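User: I'll paste a sequence; please echo it back and then give the predicted structure.

Assistant: Echoing your sequence first, then the prediction.
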Amino acid sequence: MNSLSQLKDIHAPPPIPWWPPAIGWWVVLLVIIVVAIYAFVKYKNRTIVVSYKQKNAMMDLESIKTKYQSDKNMQQTLDALSQMLKRLAIYRYPERGVAALHDEAWLQFLDETGQSHQFSTGVGVALTDLRYQAVGNHDVDMNALFGLVGKWVELNI
């Protein structure tokens, strides 16, 4: 008999299994998980810090408002509001040279960042015009000013 007729076909190796994946895929999965956890923690910390700062700013505003309602000292209130706004603006916009702004430039900055024109043309003018004038009967709607400052804080912090 012919010995070639007794040969059998070549056996193909079994297909590569899907599971378990190679070590490289485990490393990639681990890196993705670590990056996702890092991004989540960073995002949560940012929102917590922003929430905390906004809450503190609103508490400061409420404290200034309460003090004004008890003593009705407009100049001290305007000074406190202006200082608070300047402090928050320096924190929020350090690259814009906010500390050096004053008068019209300061009000324009507040208008631009507060998405309003009430600082330079409305009740916000009192923050620069009336702070250094003699005590008298100035016609300033302080409730509107407190509302305007509160809106600016909510938009920017």
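The two ends are 94 Å apart (CA to CA). The helical segments are 23-71, 74-92, 103-114, 118-121, 126-129, 142-156.
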